[in-house]
Amino acid sequence: MDATQATEKKQTARPFWSAKQLAERWGCSIQKVRLLMYSGDLKTLSIGRLRRVPDAERARFETQNSATV
After folding, report:
1. Fewer beta carbons within 10 angstroms: which end of the chain, N or C?
2. What are the CA-CA distances from residue 9 to residues 5, 31, 44, 67 (Å)?
3. Taking the domain 14-64, which CATH number applies?
C-alpha cells in the first residue's frame, strides 16, 4: 500500500461523518452539507441531537456525484 492509499484509507476509516468533516473533505461550506442533509439528498442518522452521515452513504453520494464533488 503506498502513501496515497494509506491516506485515503485513514480518511474513510470512520463509521460516521459530521457536516464539518464532509465540508472539509469536499471543499465546500458546512451550510451546503447541512442543506444536502436536511433536503434528504444526503441521508443521515440521528444520534441524540446530532446528525451524522454513515460512511456507506458518503461513498454512495460521492460516487453518484463524482462530477460535482
Report:
1. N
2. 6, 26, 22, 21
3. 1.10.10
